[in-house]
Amino acid sequence: MAGLFDKQAEIYLQARPTYPSEWYSMLAARTTRHSLAWDVGTGNGQAALGVAEHYEQVIATDVSKAQLSFATPHPRVCYVHTSQSMSEDEIVALMGAENRVDLINVATAVCWFDLPKFYKLAKRLLRKPGGILAVWAYNEMVVNPEFNTVSKRLWEATMQFWHSDAKHVIDGYRNLPFPFESVGLGREGEPMQLEIRKELLFGGSMSDNEMVGLMGVRLNCVRSYQSFYYSALV
Length: 234
Known about the structure:
Blueprint: H1 9-15, H2 21-28, E1 36-40, H3 46-51, E2 57-62, H4 65-68, E3 77-81, H5 88-95, E4 103-107, H6 115-125, E5 132-142, H7 145-158, H8 167-170, E6 181-185, E7 192-199, H9 209-215, E8 222-233
C-alpha cells in the first residue's frame, strides 16, 4: 500500500533483514534463462541486490518513492517508481514486452497486492516456458526462550492493530491464494519453511526494534526469522 511505510523508509534499510544468498541460487537454477528479473515491491532493494547476482538485468519497482530513495545502487538493477495509477499495459511496456521476464520475485510484499490483478499480469510477463514467480515473507523472530515468551505476548496483545492486509504474513502464507504449478519450493497451502539467521543489532525498526523498546530490552545476539516460500511456473 502506497505510503504505508514511507515514514520508516530509512529505518527499513538499516534494520530489515536481507535474505540468504542460497535462496537466489535456488531460483536461478530453476529458470531456463537469466536475462531479466522483476523485483516487485522492492522497497529499499534488499532482494533486488541478491537477484542481480544471477540475472543480467533486474527491474525493481515500488509504489513508494520514499522507499526507493534509500535503495542501494547496483549496475544491473534499475529502480523504478510505479504509481498505483499505472495500467497493466504500462507495466508490460516497462518490462519490454510480454513473455520476456525470467523471474518475478516478491519479497515480503505480496500481501499488499491485488492478487487477481497481479497474477494476471505475471502470466502476461513471464517467459514461457521457463519463467518463475517466487513470493516469500518472514514473520516470527526467535532469539532465546526468555525473549520469545515476551515477544509472543506482545505479538498477541497488538494483533488487533495490525493492518488487515498483513493477515497472509501472520498466518505464514498458508492461506495465500497461489494457484500455480510448483517447482519444488512450496505449493499452494503448503509453503516451504525456511530460516534466516541474523546478527541482532537493534536500533530502530518498526517490526523489531520498536517492539524491543516497548519491552525495555537491549539485545546483541543471534536471531532467526521463521520464513515461508512459494515459487511456481505460471
